[in-house]
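user: Kindly work through both lines:
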Amino acid sequence: MIWTSTTGDLPFSSHPDLRVLLFNFSLAMLVSLLFSLAPAAQFWHPNLTPALKQQVMTAGSGPLRFRRISVAVQMGLSLFVLVGAGLFVRTLHNLKSLNVGIATDHLVTFSIQPALAGYRPDQIHDLETRVLQSLAGVPGVRSVAGTNDRELADTNLSNNITLAGYTEKENENMNVESPSVSPGYFSTMGMLLLAGRDFTEQDRAGTQKVAVVNESFARHFFGEPQRALGHYYGKGGGPGVATDTEIIGVVTDARHVGVRQEITRTTFTPYLQELNPVSMTFYVRTWQPPESAESTLRSAMQALDSKLVMDDFRTMQEQIDDNLTAERVIAILASSFGVLAVLMAAVGLYGVLAYSTVQRTREIGIRIALGAARTSVMRMVLVEVLWLAGVSIAFALPASLLLTRAARSQLFGVSSSDPLTLCAATLMVAAIAVMSALLPARRAAKIDPMTALRYE
């Protein structure tokens, strides 16, 4: 028997793309040349008088003002990236902590394809029954069940239905999820029975067709779960549909296609009444940690039939993580870019402040010589930083609110204007700005007035 495990498909390819590489290289060269123009222009027409002095007398020159504006823009962009990263991280946290309607602890899952092992369609029902019985006897197994439609795996078996005695509203959606499941499926998955009964081994081909519906189905068509019992429906639409399936139970809602997807109306039918069985996914709830149950389950399946392939063997928590692969990758990338943007802004801010402090050496020396406290000098530098950060935040926050609205469809459980995320990103940018200014501020406070005033 072969054991296989797969990870979720990423929303992009990890292979290098020549077009992307060429674009990034061209963009890097263009930006490098563009930001080299200002220093080149200064060297083209140099001002020799200040250059021959040890210190420059003023800090209010045009180039320094341009540098400050550039750093302010950089801090604003880093704030925008941080806001986006915070929203995606909160989205991932909300999805991972969401109650999907299934008890995911101590639950493992795998699928089999009987046809690949040489089983004919008329042998599949008997095989699936033997698999359920074999796994139920494995030490450490609490319960086992199966379905032909995997949970939270982006799969969807659905069809239209016709309800006996129900008048459809105009343009009403009569499409429902329609998986086939084994007896004990709802208890194994942790879905509570609200009304009626579960399936039994007697619900098989040749007996009355029965179904269990979810709470959303019952409330939409009948108002409350208990009233759904005893009603009949049939698969398909139109006047000629035979409404020969009786609703015998109602269970709690659970998300099926994916964690993000809304709960849909669902009808569950017994797998023994399925006409064309193909494959089945099994769910095994264990007493011990699910990771330790792999070897015993593989041994049980090996003893049953060594030709059967256990496909997609994983815990239910791994299945949920796999379903959230795209969200996790986006959150990691956004966070990485946010941290990188903040670090680059910090480096740029430190450079501008260090240069500004050198430019103002004579001014600072005069202030200290006239009795200014060194703490007031540090405060002067920090005020300049806070002014730059305040201006950049004042412009970046409204822009972030506008631009993050475009990503609303990618968020879950959090608003694009989430106050917590905005405040956290703002405080982080302000804190990084202050930390970047501490070293230049300390250097400014330690300036020796005699050295600063040595040359006129």
About this structure: DSSP finds 14 helices and twelve strands in the chain. Confidence is low (pLDDT under 50) at residues 1-8, 54-60.
